[in-house]
Amino acid sequence: MLEGKLLQLYNEMIAVARSNVYNKSDAQDAVQEAWVRMLANRGSLREADKLNAWAKVITANAARSINLRAKRIYPVDASEFADNAGTSRDEQAIMLEIRELLESVDPRTRALLLYKFYFGYKDQEIAEAWKLPVGTIKARIHRAKRRLQQWMSN
């Protein structure tokens, strides 16, 4: 049973890494680095039921670190993603545009959008984690979505 949960977590981490790096090898490196960070900092996980979200955030950060070290900004061959992720070239173009938009917002807003729409946290959960009123979270999400929509229309 534990083996199945770990395998599921590993697959989810691979998916996060693949969405943040540009080739399969870097994704595997990011997941390996994430596991090392998780084991080294296991005491910082306060709630065991948040393990998956915690692991995904660490994986995304590890992937970004790999990109920075490699000084990569955009993939050389986006078709690798399309073939491996089962997405069409149109979907890949949309994913790259979304990535560019997310990179254009401040880190706090980016984290908020990722928690809400990528990791699937509810507004109340984000508010509790950030120690802010839920209304503030809803307003920030609304403003961020509106700002992204304006940028997309320009």
From TrEMBL:
Any one GO biological process: DNA-templated transcription initiation
Please report the name of this protein according to its UniProt entry.
RNA polymerase sigma factor
Matching InterPro entries: RNA_pol_sigma-70-like, RNA_pol_sigma-70_dom, RNA_pol_sigma70_r2, RNA_pol_sigma70_r4_t2, RNA_pol_sigma_r2, RNA_pol_sigma_r3/r4-like, WH-like_DNA-bd_sf
| Cited SUPFAM superfamilies | Sigma2 domain of RNA polymerase sigma factors (SSF88946), Sigma3 and sigma4 domains of RNA polymerase sigma factors (SSF88659)
Q: Which Pfam families match?
A: Sigma70_r2 (PF04542), Sigma70_r4_2 (PF08281)
Taxonomic lineage: Bacteria, Bacillati, Bacillota, Bacilli, Bacillales
UniProt domain RNA polymerase sigma factor 70 region 4 type: residue ranges: 96-148
What is the native source organism of this protein? Paenibacillus lycopersici
Keywords (alphabetical) are: DNA-binding, Sigma factor, Transcription, Transcription regulation
GO molecular function list: DNA binding; sigma factor activity
Residues covered by the RNA polymerase sigma-70 region domain: 9-65
Family membership noted in the UniProt record: Belongs to the sigma-70 factor family. ECF subfamily.
